[in-house]
Amino acid sequence: MTRLTLYTRPGCHLCEDAVAVLERIGEPYTEIDISGDRELEADYGDRIPVIMLDGREHGYWRVEEQRLRRDLGQG
User: Fold this and answer.
1) Phi, psi at 52, each rounded to 5°
2) Which Pfam family, giving just one, matches this sequence (predicted)?
């Protein structure tokens, strides 16, 4: 089971930054494009990117790398 989910949309520079941080952390993640999905747009549209850890919202707009590493058990 993938612990991390990243909600994004095309053309989002903060989303690109979030992907770079997640790639650097090295944990597998699922990226979900919210564009075209009314429910996801309503839930996350104002806060993209949104990072979920174990099904719970961990953060939005910017990935707090040290906090995420800590919560993943990476120190």
Assistant:
1) -110, 135
2) Glrx-like
The one-character DSSP state at 34 is -
- pLDDT tens column, 18-51: 999 999 999 999 999 999 999 999 999 999 999 9
Distances (CA, A) of 20 to 3, 16, 40, 45: 17, 6, 22, 20
Within 10 angstroms of residue 57's Cβ, the number of other Cβ atoms is: 14
- pTM for this entry: 0.93
Which H or E element spans position 46?
Answer: none
Work out the number of other CB atoms within 10 angstroms of the CB of residue 47.
13
